[in-house]
Amino acid sequence: MRRMFSLFLALVMVMSVSMTVFANPQSKPNGPWIQPEQEVKLESLMSPEDLEKNLMQIKDRARPDRMELDVVGYSATYEYPIYAVKFGEADTDNPKIFIQTQIHGDEQLGTEASMDLIQQLAMSNNKDITNILDNVTVWFIPMLNPDGAVIFETEQGQSKQRQNLQVWDPAEYGLAEDTQAPWYYRPDSVSREMGFDVNRDFHPYLDFELGPDTAAYIPRRSSEPGVYATPEALASRAVFKELQPDLFIDHHHRYSNIVSEDDDRLNTLQIIAQVVDEDTVVSFGGTDYQLDEESLNLSKQVNSHVYQALQRGNSPFGAVSRYPEVNLPGTALGSYSMNGAAIMLYETRGQQHPYGHTGQKANGQYTQQSYVGLYETLRGFATGEIYEIDPAFYDEEIPYGSPRIGRPN
């Protein structure tokens, strides 16, 4: 069915919400932008308690034998359960996809989109959904960093936090008291911007354990892999090792950019298929970890498929471009790609803190954009359409070089 269920939902949302958002643009490029007097409330976005409640309700109402719900770890400080939602078995010949969201606590719309998709997969009898379930295995971690997702008040308003609130304690790993923390740790507890950036805590060697014998590998710069010091990274790693996915999707947020030097439309999404240089090698335990051509080509096919899906018809999601080139083997995307998984990064516009650039109305549109992209990815694997895409489309057709812009007010 070429006219997809997700596109219908997107158009419904556009008619009911987004038309008011994009009327009377406030700047060129047009917004929406947060206004100086505007107070942004974050209660409409899922808290860790809301997530747990919603997952339990979906599980209770799911069609028989469709969905498995597991606790794969606990957050560093508040000890919230970290849930994995599983559709299909790891031991299968079907394509296997791992979708992870909210590794940064203030980047939440991926959680909203993934929960909408989880509900459809668990409960819908739509033909496209049943075809996906028959032909694709998909597992989710819909909120990897629940500690960072907790709302707190600042002088500027409500906020969430990028880090995981964890305190560096060398003794926890059997290390000397004066052992320096990894570079991606912040000790500042006054502003609440403390803890680890979980998305720098990954290593291609998936059995890495931080301890006296590996203390020399604690990274001092972003080009070095992480050390799995956080329970959140360990939870993600456990799911990856169990599933051994063909594709890993990680959902993030970014500030405001325009599509390219020649296209001043405001980006709604940036995507990327490669976060590690092809000549980067990480050696550990007698094994060399390096990006391979097969998984990179599949990454480009997946990213191209989503880009094409978001351009169809009168879609409001056409302002998509490629994320800047990076070389980050210590990220989840980087480490997992060096273990043979294709990858896709979502960098949706807007972050959920007082200095973010979007409000509640735009959040609905951006959530739907991510839903459409994720849904179309699953459908594309179920039908085989993704494998028909020329990987060269990614490099040749998707705009690149999106300049960052500040809000006009």
From TrEMBL:
Signal peptide range: 1-23
UniProt xrefs under SMART domains: Zn_pept
GO biological process: proteolysis
Family annotation (PROSITE patterns): CARBOXYPEPT_ZN_1
Molecular function via GO: metallocarboxypeptidase activity; zinc ion binding
Cofactor(s) annotated in UniProt: Zn(2+)
Record's protein name: Zinc carboxypeptidase
Organism: Salipaludibacillus aurantiacus
